[in-house]
Write a sequence for this structure.
């Protein structure tokens, strides 16, 4: 068994000083109110695995809201509480947050009635969790600070790197746990225990996953696709027969495996190049998984998965538009062999990163892949050096001609035919002279 001293040593080694200090402060507030306070769940799991995790979840044996309010008053924080669930979020002035839950729920059955108090215990609270590895708690109160509480063999499972449910009805109770099991297995590089895997297979066979609403299914899928190595998760979903919940025709054929590997290659290339550029990486994989679907099927899938309306429209429309534009690019490549930079630019301009990466992975033409890569690395973000004011000085009356002239100048610049501002002005003069 792990000693309090060892847990404290882990904290001192892996957590920022401030976090450890906050954990002590939480324990002290607990002491003052005579409430027992624990850090629980993923935070404890990751601490023992030496993985950085700043999401502190705290459970209070008693009234968590009272606890959160007292703590906040002492340390200048704000509190957002949900009476109905007995939960609160403590928000520090710099935005740092701590989630607080109660093992005692107080709720009002009808307005004006006395509160009904439901008392549970830490053990009951932890028993409701998904997997053993998420059931660890660390005591935070002064005397017992650092004591590891392990009711369900979590420490053993962490050491043998196993994902295990707490009871046989776990997946029936909440089928999203099937996807969570896969996510944790892949992310932590653990293995789903044999019996737990059998329970998953059984839940799939008994059609319990059919009960899952589209929104929850999407949220789980997105989380798997957002992981560092989504292919492992997708492979696991396939072997457990889960891809059909996206669409019945989706299978992990060798061709699909190849397409996903190409997608991973393209996505890693892009991420290395543009570390900070935000885009929805999960949707590149999603588009690849759905590449065999007709427009109607794709729309149906997005609707069933409750993809947000504006994002759904964007995905459906851009997938179609991307298809059309890439086909045009392929024809140009096939026709002339070499495509001008300006043609690449004006063909691809306006397509979202996600769609471009999807097509970059999908296209069989090495030249088309090169065009898209060139667009990212060089062409996108190029502008003419002259502006509207320069055109005004040249005597051009403001109007749609401005756009045309600036695009013309940009074309020349993209194709290396106008290197300087002077070149651009000369070009405009030539064009205007010829009008
Ligand atoms: P992540 O790093 O993905 O956030 P996490 O373990 O912190 O991992 P959360 O999804 O934030 O996971 O959930 C917090 C805790 O709530 C988990 O440790 C888990 O025990 C519990 N939990 C979340 N979802 C479920 C569920 N569907 N069924 C049971 N317990 C759950």
């Amino acid at each position: 068994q792990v000693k309090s001293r060892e847990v404290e040593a882990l904290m001192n080694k892996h957590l920022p000083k401030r976090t450890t200090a906050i954990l002590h402060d939480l324990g002290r507030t607990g002491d003052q109110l005579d409430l027992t306070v624990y850090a629980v769940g993923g935070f404890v799991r990751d601490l023992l695995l030496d993985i950085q995790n700043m999401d502190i979840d705290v459970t209070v044996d008693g009234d968590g809201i009272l606890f959160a309010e007292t703590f906040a008053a002492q340390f200048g924080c704000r509190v957002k509480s949900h009476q109905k669930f007995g939960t609160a979020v403590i928000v520090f002035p710099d935005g740092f947050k701590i989630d607080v839950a109660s093992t005692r729920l107080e709720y009002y059955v009808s307005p004006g009635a006395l509160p009904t108090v439901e008392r549970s215990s830490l053990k009951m609270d932890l028993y409701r969790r998904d997997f053993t590895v998420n059931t660890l708690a660390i005591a935070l109160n002064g005397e017992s600070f650092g004591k590891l509480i392990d009711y369900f063999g979590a420490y053993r499972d962490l050491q043998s790197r196993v994902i295990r449910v707490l009871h046989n009805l776990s997946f029936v109770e909440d089928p999203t746990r099937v996807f969570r099991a896969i996510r944790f297995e892949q992310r932590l590089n653990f293995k789903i225990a044999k019996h737990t895997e059998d329970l998953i297979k059984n839940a799939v066979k008994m059609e319990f996953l059919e009960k899952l609403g589209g929104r929850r299914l999407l949220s789980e899928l997105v989380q798997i696709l957002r992981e560092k190595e989504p292919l492992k998760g997708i492979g696991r979903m396939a072997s457990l027969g889960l891809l059909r919940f996206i669409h019945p025709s989706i299978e992990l054929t060798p061709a699909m495996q190849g397409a996903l590997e190409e997608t991973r290659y393209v996505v890693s290339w892009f991420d290395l190049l543009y570390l900070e550029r935000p885009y929805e990486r999960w949707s590149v994989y999603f588009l690849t998984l759905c590449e065999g679907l007709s427009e109607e099927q794709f729309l149906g899938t997005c609707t069933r998965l409750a993809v947000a309306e504006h994002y759904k429209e964007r995905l459906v429309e851009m997938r179609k538009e991307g298809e059309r534009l890439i086909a045009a690019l392929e024809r140009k490549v096939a026709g002339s062999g070499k495509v001008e930079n300006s043609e690449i630019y004006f063909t691809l301009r306006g397509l979202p990163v996600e769609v471009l990466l999807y097509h970059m992975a999908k296209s069989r033409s090495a030249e088309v892949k090169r065009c898209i890569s060139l667009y990212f690395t060089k062409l996108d973000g190029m502008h003419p050096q002259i502006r509207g004011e320069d055109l005004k000085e040249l005597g051009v009356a403001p109007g749609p001609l401005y756009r045309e002239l600036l695009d013309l100048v940009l074309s020349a610049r993209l194709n290396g035919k106008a290197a300087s501002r002077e070149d651009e002005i000369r070009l405009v003069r030539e064009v205007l002279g010829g009008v």
In short: The mean pLDDT is 91. The pocket of adenosine-5'-triphosphate is lined by residues 41-42, 55, 129-130, 134, 174, 176-177, 180 (CB under 6 Å).
